[in-house]
Amino acid sequence: MALRNAILATLLEGEASGYDLAKGFDGSVANFWAATPQQLYRELERMAADGLVAARLVEQTGRPNKRMFSLTDAGRDELGAYTTHPPRPIVIRDELLVAVQSMESGDVASVQRWVAARQESARSRLTRYLRLRDRLLDGRSEAEFVAGAERIGPYLTLARGISFEEENIRWCSFVLGAIASRLDRAVT
Amino acid sequence: MALRNAILATLLEGEASGYDLAKGFDGSVANFWAATPQQLYRELERMAADGLVAARLVEQTGRPNKRMFSLTDAGRDELGAYTTHPPRPIVIRDELLVAVQSMESGDVASVQRWVAARQESARSRLTRYLRLRDRLLDGRSEAEFVAGAERIGPYLTLARGISFEEENIRWCSFVLGAIASRLDRAVT
DNA sequence: ATTGGCATGTAACCAGTTACATGATTCC
DNA sequence: GGAATCATGTAACTGGTTACATGCCAAT
């Protein structure tokens, strides 16, 4: 029942197709809720059946027709009700951390490589998020935006994504440094 | 197949019962891999069948008997092999962020409350992690530890947990401040 | 010619969650 | 007397993942 609300939250930005949502819908919710295309199509179907979203068929020539989904009043109510019930604690599941934890029983060079890869992907996400923030702020300072914008929710979640990726980058550097200093030692 | 490796990584610290693991096994892996007791009992059963762990029955008087699990050589090999294969990207699913994103279509006072609750739980986790770190460091500085300890994996993952919770606390303050300043405005 | 993007979907499977059950013991 | 802790487990369910299929278009 939570994917459902993540979809509803995304549709606040306007109507979208399943494909749009699957692509991350330009970053908005993708930042804090991951879902595969199959999950989305399945859930959208159910939501339409439950009257939370309305589907509109858009016929296209040259490419497949698409179904654009938008919020119904019932969907909006559901989302409103959702904000009143306690969120469950975040569940973290990070395979890389499992590998780092057991690093010295495994292949340190591999772990090093995966940490570097994680850092790279964190960097590219961060630049994407920063672009998004610039677009949102549109010249205003953060203080101005927070005081004046109609909706600050998307800005606040984006801020969480930004600091998360910054932390990731920093931590990866720390780990790479620690591994490198130990390898030096071992060789010397 | 990843819960499996998280369990193996935990068992590097020594043998444990399903119950120990369920309680978070004193924080170690619980920091980056969440699992319910049911998942653990089920998985331990399978792992024993696959020869990755060995079960030892400990008879107790006054309380239920327990089965202590420990790594086998096959388990150790499996864990070693695991570090060489690419970790899948972290999946984040945070209900609170869904609520924050759609805050202005919902009940702002509730969201405020849940953010405050999240901050509280982040604080208590952080103090737990800091205690764990002190115990690990045991008087040494971080630099000394990283240079000298036999295993630094657990320290590195703990460091990630610490910075994650610190970021959480900071972000929650930011959100609470933003909400409060808007409510002031609305009232004035 | 073939890759990649658009756009949807089915089927089968695996992982994670919830609810419940047991039974003695210790603490308040 | 009632709740919490120890310690394990079953059963039923929901949510998430993987693999595959379709078919047309634009670009290389």
Largest sheet of chain A: 3 strands, antiparallel
- Report the count of strand segments of chain A: 3
What structural class results from the helix and strand content of chain A?
mainly alpha
Q: Please state the oligomeric state of the protein chains shown.
A: homodimer
Strand content of chain A: 5-15%
The value of Rg of chain A in angstroms is 21 Å
Biggest interface found: A-B, 69 and 70 residues
Uncertain regions spanning at least 5 consecutive residues of chain A: none
Helix content range of chain A: 55-70%
Q: Termini separation of chain A (Å)? A: 56 Å
Give the number of helices of chain A: 8
**What is the N-to-C succession of helices and strands of chain A?**
HEHHEEHHHHH
Rough shape of chain A? elongated
With strands numbered from the N-terminus, the spatial order across the biggest sheet of chain A is: 1-3-2
Commentary on this structure:
Two copies of one chain form a homodimer. With 188 residues, chain A is mainly α. Chain A is built from eight helices and three strands; from the N terminus they run H-E-H-H-E-E-H-H-H-H-H. In chain A, strands 1-3-2 form a three-stranded antiparallel beta sheet. In chain A, helix 6 (108-137) packs antiparallel against helix 8 (153-187). Chain A is elongated. Chains A and B meet through helix 1, helix 4, helix 5, helix 6 and helix 8 of A and helix 1, helix 4, helix 5, helix 6 and helix 8 of B. Chain A binds a DNA duplex (28 and 28 nucleotides) through residues 1-3, 17-19, 22, 34-39, 41-43, 45, 60, 62-67, 91.
